[in-house]
From TrEMBL:
Organism the protein comes from: Actinacidiphila bryophytorum
Biased composition (Gly residues): 28-55
Any one GO molecular-function label of the UniProt entry: serine-type endopeptidase activity
Protein name, entry field: Signal peptidase I
Keyword Metal-binding: no
Amino acid sequence: MAPAKPDPAAGGSPAKDAWEADPAVGSGLPGNGLPGHGVPGPGVPGSGPQGGGLPANGIPAMAGGVPGEPVGPVGPAGPGRDPDDDEDEGRPAHGRKQRSFWKELPLLIGIALVLALLIKTFLVQAFSIPSDSMNNTLLKGDRVLVDKLTPWFGSTPTRGEVVVFHDPGGWLPENPSPSSNVVVRGLQKGLSFIGLMPSADEKDLIKRVIGVGGDTVSCKGTGPVMVNGKALDEPYIFPGNTACSPEVPFTVHVPKGRIWVMGDHRQDSLDSRFHTTLPGGGTVPNSDVVGRAVVVAWPVTRWDVLSIPGTFSQPGINAAAGTAVPAAAGLAGALPLVMWRRRRLLSKAGPVQESAEDC
């Protein structure tokens, strides 16, 4: 139906009359270009649903309300919006779900065991004192930490150190039979492998190094112990003990690459003195030394650093062992050089002397 022409005489508004005359155009506000209205906005041809253009305010029409009002429960979906973003907004801010502690526990235990094995093999290992042979420096039941790192770099035992070493053969009785319980035996082997308890298969001892390769160690009567002709002052010996036992005098030349060891509790220690009839003459090969005990770690009340006593650094104690041979070798090597230099100086001085005589 064609819109009715307004009658100016009636006093009506042309726009209002046009709206009321043609209800098929749409139900909305006339002439404002809002969505859902078929009336073209002023100056915007073809606006509205019939013309296919924009309304007068330039805002695209959106179903269900005023321009800019959210559509649906979450807001307008623009052309660059990903529908998955709506799902991400509902997730926790910290991202993915955290792993359960009980799922991570086996991994943590595995890492701890690997670290313990590496430390025990290459760095430090704890040993328990099994006897009274090192009283009062070490008491039965003490735990000491043994340095296993320096031997990897070629370090060898030195006089005065407290060292742990494997039984060279015949020093200790045979080990007791392992437990008949399979579970207990397996648990013991596993814990000893990673260093958390002593091994039932290894036979280790702990003593103090008195002499090293090249030294001459001797003792008669009650002492003192002599190393390369120098008497040792040993304040670490158990109170009431003597440096030597009169019934076991000895004089030994320590072979190269071996050590002579004695316990600090001299009258209660089956050390090198009592194994002179065995291969090695009571000495221990350096290759059997596990490492140097550096500290008493347990119990806490017994904590102490195992330092080297000053008596082992007294002047002249190295004369026979390590100083005489290198000095002789150095002299022998320097002699040809001195002779060559002297001959060269004489050859240069000869012509000068002759020319002086000619004058």
